[in-house]
């Protein structure tokens, strides 16, 4: 008795399968394009940009001529810090230099030519998400600058099903839209083009998609073996069959 696993599918089904398989291949191999969500023009370039202070960061404020006023303090959840003579100061959302200039202006009312330095001692809010075909997808707590490739390696690297050349970074923009930035990590690893190894910003999302072969295998499994409740083998007949 012939088992179901060796029954050849009828010619009409084989034709359907071929068309569907080609459509699946085309969908899987469609290249990712850069763009902005929603419709806003992308910038000419994507610099890493200076770090913006966040709630929970620890700041060290140094006064060069009056060191007795030096202080180390955290940024409160409301983004503010409290300093003698300056009272409440907005820190979150600013660079260290922007905060320094504000403090110099405030203390100029009390001190003669104040020289102040602002140092970010710890980065408690620096998080990125790494997803897709990596060993351990999830949120990474980063305590310093990281590139895309470093974040992938911290997520235990690429799976065999990954397509590093089609990786993307989803990045929030000041207008609360999101930008999709293609990053060719295959070229980075090959040493032919390092431009894709961007410096990450807080709350960036790194996504590594599956390869075309992985997508086809998943498609065959989901749409054929699971939706057609038989096991079968198939072949594409040549004109001479």
Protein described:
The protein is an alpha+beta fold and 241 residues long. Among the domains are: 33-45 and 125-208, Outer membrane lipoprotein wza fold like; 58-122, wza like fold (2-Layer Sandwich). It is built from 5 helices and 11 strands. It has helices at 11-28, 96-107, 148-154, 185-190, 212-225, and strands at residues 35-37, 58-63, 71-74, 80-83, 87-90, 116-122, 127-132, 138-141, 167-172, 178-183, 205-208. The strands form 3 sheets. Strands 1-10-9-11-7-8 form a 6-stranded mixed β-sheet, with helices on one face. A 3-stranded antiparallel β-sheet has the order 3-2-6, with helices on one face. A two-stranded antiparallel sheet has the order 4-5. A hairpin with a 3-residue loop joins strand 4 (80-83) and strand 5. Helix 1 packs antiparallel against helix 5. The protein is elongated, with a radius of gyration of 27 Å. The chain starts with 10 loop residues before the first helix and ends in a 16-residue tail after the last helix.
Give a brief description.
With 241 residues, this protein is α+β, with helices and mostly antiparallel strands. The protein is built from five helices and eleven strands. β4 and β5 (87-90) form a beta hairpin.
